Amino acid sequence: MVEGHSRSFTSVVEVDLELLDEIQRRVLWLAVRMVDSANHDRDAGDGVKVGGHQASSASLVTAMTALWFAHLEAQDRVAVKPHASPVLHAINYLLGDLDRSYLTRLRARGGLQSYPSRTKDPDRVDFSTGSVGLGAAAPLFAAVTRRYVDAHFGPRDQARFIALIGDAELDEGNIWEAIADPATQGLGNVMWIVDFNRQSLDRVVPGIRIAQWTAQFAAAGWHVVEVKYGRRLHQAFQRPGGEALRSWLDAMPNEQYQSMFTLSPADLRSRFLDGAPADLVAHLADTPDDELVSLVTDLGGHDLAAMLEAYAECDKVTDRPSVVFAYTVKGWGLPSAGNPRNHSALLSTEQVADLRTATGLTPDDEWDRVDPASPAGVLTAVRREALRRDPSRPGLDVTVPQSTGIRPSKPVSTQEAFGRVLVDLSRDPAVSPYLVTTAPDVATSTNLAGFINRTGVFAPEERRAWNEDPMLRWAEGPTGQHIELGISEMNLFLLLGQLGLSWDLSGQPLVPVGTVYDPFVLRGLDAFLHATYSGARFIVAGTPSGVTLAPEGGAHQSTITASAGLELPGVTLMEPAYAGALDWLLCDAVTRVASGPAPTTTAGPAEPGAFYFRLTTRPLDQTPFDAARARLGDAVLRRQVLAGGYQLLDAFTTHPELAGQPDGTGRAPEVRIAASGAVLPEALAAAVELADEGIAAHVIDITSADRLYAAWQRTLRQGVRTATTPSTPGALRAAFGTGRAPVVTVHDASSHAMAWIGSALGVPQVPLGVDEFGQSGSVADLYELHDLLPGSIVNAALAALSI
Ligand SMILES: Cc1ncc(C[n+]2csc(CCOP(=O)(O)OP(=O)(O)O)c2C)c(N)n1
Ligand SMILES: [Mg+2]
């Protein structure tokens, strides 16, 4: 089959293996029947196949039964590969953590999710999985988080962070990015268990890859264990002539080995011995066909003792993470075992009936838990107690200031203001201990240096600084509050996601803040999604963004990130232009992250998830914001900034002559220019030009298109659901007023991101934005290329007035 070192089974396992075997048969049955029921007992009537993965589930039954019924402790956290979710639910059910009614509601609305979900499943799920590769890496970053939490807040009860992953998940690059990063080194409480069934979705994984993979793990500093053969094969190897059997098996390619599973016992013999040396053929001549089948398919991943021994061996290695390659059979114990087409194959009703009978069940008791009075029932009760956990507190009891009072007198960029506000918050003794920043090698270029100078860089042990840099004190040690990552945006979002779940997975809420070059948010987008789908709470600054990063050219200019931030569920996109607005928004986001999901703060009900600040390095004159502050007052302005937008410039205040007579005669035509972020100066300049042409142009600063859109959607949905006329949401009315003037939107991002505002207000709109790749140049060059200069905004306003 495949080369590599296999293990011996001499150590004593203090568990009753027969009991465990009885339980694993029940787990297999429940997992298979759950999928069967979802497909055959329910009819949604929509013609869409329900699906499910019986074979992928079966291959992890042994590993998972061994874990939950003989290895895990209450504090341990486990990620389960997406397609084994029925196994997890079956185990949770047997342990009393899931009501029986859910067993027939796999993949049904409000029922069990097809893939483990922290936020949507009713039972205990430590990590959401689904997009392969991410579930594997999540516990690794949860362990990074635990190491940080222990260093800063004192050690908690020890926990192991475990991932059960499919072998084809190792094709995902994020796996290798995760294990290569120095931040994940040395974590002895991490164990990955690879379900090494040598099959992916489409095929038998070609060739022999185990040697390459084990070498890659070892090179990254991991402890590698292979659980290759089961007890019967090991015994056979010990007998005279056994070495030939072992060499033959070790050398056999995956494809040949896998092809045996679908054959009759007699055919299997000839396939197995096809080309074999004469002494091996003779050696096996006396072994009956049936016995030969069970012998050559006896893999270690289905040997409970071998798996438990491997787990124990990993526990002994405390200075680095461990990976266990468990050789398994996809479809173990099922008629579809090893079949290359078994990934989504479902057992027939007859095959399910046979499995039911073989498990010792009838249709009357098929969904029952094990008899509590039986030895298996007693073991189950013991394990239920052993795994009981107290609920964690989701939020911090701290008062975060509403503002740091930043009032720059000179032009300043939002990126610089972000750095200054963070430094200020790090001086606040109530908030500071919980702030933790991270960046993928862009900490200094995204203005985190000030924070790092104050708090230091996190390292498990004190490290000597070899370079004394007067600008950046890169002091590394256990008290540092910045976690530096290599250039992997996947790792950034994976870490932010786990820092943002620290309240649950490490019993300590944190306020995580990440920074990333905005164009490369897309590089980590799937991990961003995974984090927010998992319910993580954090702040991320994408900076610099847009074509305003003019000299850097098209490869560094982000255009679709605003849309991504706006559309991602669980993420609130914010794009302020002025330092004062950024200060309020950032303090508010810190408050919301700190408070946890419960609505306990003065900031009102907490929004779910993450807060994404899209920032720039373009210094902006702050006087227009100061004028709006003077006009509206701090309280009103703050409320509107937080709600998503405010009127930055009222044309009738700056140009009273345009307002005409008190009776309305002589009033100038009106237009509203709504801009977000770096382009506000152009919007203001266009308003001046329009005033010269006798047009009253009001300027609205959109601080969060996302919040305005969400407010609009809420009123729309309410109208749709109750068949009533939707009202204009308060936040939009506050920013835009009640007039009917047309709108021009201006955004250093795809024009599409704010193209809905006209609809929301029921008025004509011309959306300006960046819909092509940019190139190098000055800001003015790029704004000219993409029609963002005042002249283009003026023309857009005239066009809007003529629609
Ligand atoms: C990122 C991503 N790409 C593709 C898929 C679709 N997919 C689901 S399982 C699978 C194959 C997984 O094979 P393996 O990890 O070996 O799991 P097995 O079913 O063999 O246990 C694929 C391609 C996915 N879920 N996520
Ligand atoms: Mg596989």
How many alpha or pi helices?
32
DSSP strand tally: 18
Main sheet? 6 strands, parallel
Question: How confident is the prediction overall: mean pLDDT?
Answer: 94
Rounded to the nearest angstrom, the distance between the terminal CA atoms is: 72 Å
The low-confidence parts are 1-13, 599-606
Radius of gyration: 31 Å
Structure overview:
It is a single chain. Mean pLDDT is 94; it is low at 1-13 and 599-606. The chain is an alpha/beta fold. It contains 32 helices and 18 strands. It is elongated. Helix 1 crosses helix 3 and helix 27 packs across helix 32 (790-802). 40% of the residues lie in helices and 11% in strands. Strand 2, helix 6 (173-180) and strand 3 form a beta-alpha-beta unit. A six-stranded parallel beta sheet has the order 9-6-10-11-13-12. A five-stranded parallel beta sheet has the order 1-2-3-5-4, sandwiched between helices. The protein starts with 16 loop residues before the first helix and ends with a helix. Bound molecules: thiamine diphosphate and magnesium ion (MG).
List the helices and strands and how they pair.
Blueprint: H1 17-40, H2 54-58, H3 61-70, E1 77-80, H4 85-94, H5 134-153, E2 161-166, H6 173-180, E3 190-196, H7 210-219, E4 223-227, H8 231-238, H9 242-251, H10 254-259, H11 265-272, H12 278-283, H13 289-296, H14 304-316, E5 322-327, H15 349-358, H16 375-386, H17 414-426, E6 435-440, H18 449-455, E7 457-458, E8 476-477, E9 482-485, H19 489-499, H20 502-505, E10 511-516, H21 525-533, E11 539-542, H22 561-567, E12 571-574, H23 579-595, E13 610-614, H24 623-632, H25 634-643, E14 645-649, H26 651-654, E15 670-676, H27 680-692, E16 696-702, H28 705-722, H29 730-736, E17 743-747, H30 757-761, E18 765-768, H31 779-785, H32 790-802
Helix pairs in contact: 1-3, 1-4, 1-15, 3-14, 5-6, 5-19, 8-9, 11-13, 17-18, 17-23, 19-21, 24-25, 27-32
Bound molecules: thiamine diphosphate (TPP) and magnesium ion.
